[in-house]
C-alpha cells in the first residue's frame, strides 16, 4: 500500500474527471519542509511559526528570524509558502514567553490578540518576514481574527514595519495576506474583511472548539467536540460561498482536511485548496484521484442535509 501511494507522489491532486485541487502541507520546522518532496506536496498551506519557538528559552531576534525564513524560502524554491504569525496562548505555551494567568485561556489573550498586545514581538516577526519576502513569494496569515478592527490594527503595524525597514535601508518584498477563519465571528464578519484580504484558510480545529463551545483539549468532551458537525459544516459552506462571491480562494488547514474520507466532500463544497499533515498527504491525494467531481458534489449536498452529528459520522464512515 505504501509503495502504491508513493507512486502518486509526482502526480497532480485532481479528481478522475480532472478537477484540480491545491494540495499543500501543514508544517512546523525546516526539517518538515525538507520532506515536502517525499510526499509530493505542492507547497505549504500552514507554517505554524510558534513551533520554531517550542524548544528555545530566548526569543529569536529579527535577524535570526529573517535567516530562518530565508532558509525556508530556499527550500521552497518558489512554491506556495504560507506563514502564520505566532499563535500563542491557550494550549500553545512557549518557554520563551511569560505565561499569562487567565481563568479562560482559550477565550483569552491568544493568537492575534496576543500579537496585538505585544507589538514589539509582532513587529519583529513581521519585519523578518517582509525582509525574507525580498527573496521569494510569501503568503502571510493571521490566527484568531474575529473582525475588521483587528485587521486595521495589524495592517497599521505592518505599515510601521515597512517605514522602519525603509529607514534602516533594509530591502523587503510584498506579501499576500490572509486570515485563518477559526471563530464563528470571523465567518459572520467575513464579507466586510474580504476586501482587505488575498486569501483565507479555514481552521476547523478552533472553528469546532468555538462553535461547539467545547475545549479541543478536554478528553471528557469528545462527544461535544466532533470531527464534523452540521453546525461547522454549515459555517464552512457559508465561508466558501461568501469568499467565492468575491473571487477569493479558500483553503482549509484544520485536521478535517487530513481525513481522506472527508477531503472529497470538502472539494464538493467548493474548497480550492487543502492543507494537510505530511503523513496524510498521499492518502488524501489518492482519495481525490479515485473519485469523480460529480460524486464530490453529491456527497457535499447529502452531508449538508444531515442534522445529527452521529448521522454525519455514519455517512462519512460509510463512504468507501
Ligand atoms: C485550526 O485551528 O484548525 C488550525 C489549523 O490551527 P491550530 O490547530 O494550530 O490551532
Ligand atoms: Mg487554530
From TrEMBL:
Residues that bind phosphoenolpyruvate: 48, 84, 205-206, 216
Catalytic machinery residues: 253 (proton donor)
GO biological process terms on file: phosphoenolpyruvate-dependent sugar phosphotransferase system
EC id: 2.7.3.9
Intracellular or extracellular location(s): Cytoplasm
UniProt keyword list: Cytoplasm, Kinase, Magnesium, Metal-binding, Phosphotransferase system, Sugar transport, Transferase, Transport
Domain PEP-utilising enzyme C-terminal span(s) in chain numbering: 4-292
Reactions mediated catalytically: L-histidyl-[protein] + phosphoenolpyruvate = N(pros)-phospho-L-histidyl-[protein] + pyruvate
Annotated positions binding Mg(2+): 182, 206
GO terms, molecular function: kinase activity; metal ion binding; phosphoenolpyruvate-protein phosphotransferase activity
UniProt cofactor(s): Mg(2+)
GO (cellular component) term, any one: cytoplasm
Primary enzyme class: transferase
Superkingdom as given in the UniProt entry: Bacteria
Similarity field: Belongs to the PEP-utilizing enzyme family.
Annotated function: General (non sugar-specific) component of the phosphoenolpyruvate-dependent sugar phosphotransferase system (sugar PTS). This major carbohydrate active-transport system catalyzes the phosphorylation of incoming sugar substrates concomitantly with their translocation across the cell membrane. Enzyme I transfers the phosphoryl group from phosphoenolpyruvate (PEP) to the phosphoryl carrier protein (HPr).
The name this protein goes by in its record: Phosphoenolpyruvate-protein phosphotransferase
Residues of the full protein shown: 248 to 567 of 567
